[in-house]
């Protein structure tokens, strides 16, 4: 399985999915014009990853500045895939980083996580 790397743009997240290290990193901000075009390849990659490496401990890292509602729908879908996986294998570690404890992004993140059972470590950047 190949690594997936996308540089961040003005409107899309940076992506660094490394199957050899079992680290999937999302960073930056997300408000793509066409979220399906951006997120569907990520969802496809995650589906394949979970098939190839079902028992590997996987670390998901989100370093977010901003994400809009349409992005949150797709981010939730990815998190939901890992939530189902984690219920079977208990091998997913999720880290969310943001700039400030008072950040609106943190509130949005907490709303996303409300319906999931994934353990999530929240880090506030210095």
Termini Cα gap:
35 Å
User: Would you identify the regions where 5 or more consecutive residues have pLDDT less than 50?
Assistant: none
Overall structural class, as computed from helix and strand content, comes to alpha/beta
Mean pLDDT: 93
Helix content: 25-40%
Number of domains: 1
- Rg estimate, integer Å: 14 Å
Look at the structure and give the CATH class: Alpha Beta
Give the number of helices.
Answer: 3
Lateral arrangement of strands in the main beta sheet: 1-2-3-4-5-6
How much beta, percentage-wise? 25-35%
Task: List the main descriptive attributes of the protein structure presented here.
126 residues; alpha/beta; 3 helices
Write a structural description.
With 126 residues, the chain is α/β, with parallel strands linked by helices. 39% of the residues lie in helices and 30% in strands. It is built from 3 helices and 6 strands, in the order βββαβαβαβ. α1 (35-52) runs parallel beside α2 (69-89). The longest helix has 21 residues, at 69-89. 21% of the residues are buried. The mean pLDDT is 93.
């Amino acid at each position: 399985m190949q690594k997936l790397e996308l540089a961040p743009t003005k409107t899309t997240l940076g992506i660094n999915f490394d199957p050899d290290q079992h680290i999937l990193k999302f960073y930056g901000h997300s408000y793509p014009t066409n979220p399906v075009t951006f997120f569907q390849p990520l969802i496809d990659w995650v589906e394949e990853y979970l098939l190839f490496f079902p028992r590997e401990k996987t670390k998901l890292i989100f370093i977010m500045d901003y994400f809009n509602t349409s992005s949150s729908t797709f981010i939730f879908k990815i998190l939901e895939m890992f939530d189902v996986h984690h219920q079977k294998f208990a091998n997913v570690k999720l880290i969310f980083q943001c700039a400030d404890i008072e950040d609106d992004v943190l509130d949005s993140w907490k709303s996303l996580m409300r319906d999931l059972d994934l353990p999530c470590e929240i880090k506030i950047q210095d």
